[in-house]
Amino acid sequence: MGKNSKAFDEPIYDARSLGTGRMLVLGVQHMFAMFGATVLVPIITGLDVSTTLLFAGLGTLLFHLITGRKVPAFLGSSFAFLGGYAAVAPLLDGGASNKELLPYACFGVAVSGLLYLVLAFLFKTFGAGRVMKFFPPVVTGPIIIAIGLNLAPSAINNCADNWNWIPAITAIIIVICCNIWGRGLIRIVPILLGVLGSYFVSAIMDALGVEMIDYSQVASAPWIGFPIHFENTVFSLFTKGFDSGVLITAVITIVPIAFATMMEHIGDISAISSTTGRNYIKDPGLHRTLIGDGLATALASLFGAPANTTYGENTGVLTLTKVYDPLVIRIAAGFAVLMSFCPKFAAIIETMPSGTIGGISLVLYGMISAVGIRNLVETHVDFSKSRNVLVAAMIMVLTIGISYSAVGSLPLPFGGVSLSGLATGSLVGILLNAVLPGKDYKFEDELPNATGVDLEMTQGDPIEMDKAQ
């Protein structure tokens, strides 16, 4: 599209007016906006890249179907659940995927997706204001802070070996520069550019004799293949037998993370509303968008893909192009599905050096914790009140304390079940907030980003919705 294209002059709600060629180009742009972050999650967790791309596309299409094809949102891999995967199915020595325990973690994430449906029902029945008082920023903020801090050691471990700090620092510098000084699309895809730049540096080091990248799997990978592998799915647990204690532990460990991601979802839908000038919180309604996101997450997890979430990167593309037609997002989803059927492409992605992963993870995990702090600041949590101090303190000290204690989890006196630090801290925080007097949080569904939560690597500053709308 040239400078005179009306896509840059005024909002466009029907992309067909631009012609088929331009619609396809816009779809490809949206696909690349989500790409860097979406494929990073399976690389960090050990999940399959092809399966991830397939269910990012299918999850987006399911979301559009449930929301009446009204909301221009793309659903990509959620960073928030990284802590859950790390707790239930930590990577093996050398960064190998934990094939035995990953299906348990996926089951926990699938149950988390179903929790979205419960919140959607409560929103529809009682209204958002009554429900949200149980999940105020004084609860979700510290939970998010703890998620990032829990993950930090794994990022350091990825960087610590041999020459890995060189590509790691390269990735960090590129991400920072793109976020602070980048313009347009460059500012929207900092993770993708950081990965590419760091990978390029690793390739140069490899060519100079420093072993950084293993290309052996790329040569043997076929060009076309089916992206779902039964042994990676939740269904495989029920054919080979499973440990009920581990299954219940996975659910208890991971489900509390959904409280943070559901708040993130509300903030994302608000941001998309403010960008397009249409209030999607009212039409199709938060209950429908929550159902779409929850079902997409549950479906993806059952088949061995990461949890899904609405992507801020794609909201940034909407801002850049002013083309707000959800059809363009569905085109991007179609491209993601097509790419998932190319195992050779996935193999190339999986050759990403650990230094690159470590550098990106350092930024990402730090930003997750920083977003938790921002959540508390932007929503004006009053820490002069003892009840707020106690709620936040118990969440963080229990989460970090239990996670890095000698036992690593809190065993329960039945069924071989144990609570992770994050699960314990989250549940105690929610309970304390519910019983202590002085709850003063009011959710304003007419305002964007009312929850202050945004766990993705997004563009620029938040865009404010016109309060008069």
UniProtKB/TrEMBL annotation:
- Sequence intervals crossing the membrane: 21-43, 49-66, 73-89, 101-122, 134-156, 162-181, 188-205, 245-263, 327-349, 355-377, 389-407, 413-436
This protein's UniProt keywords: Cell membrane, Membrane, Transmembrane, Transmembrane helix, Transport
Report the subcellular localization.
Answer: Cell membrane
What single Pfam family name could you report for this chain, choosing any that match? Xan_ur_permease
Note the superkingdom of the native organism: Bacteria
Q: What is its main location?
A: membrane
One GO cellular component term of this record is: plasma membrane
**Membrane topology designation:** Multi-pass membrane protein
Protein name per Swiss-Prot or TrEMBL? Uracil permease
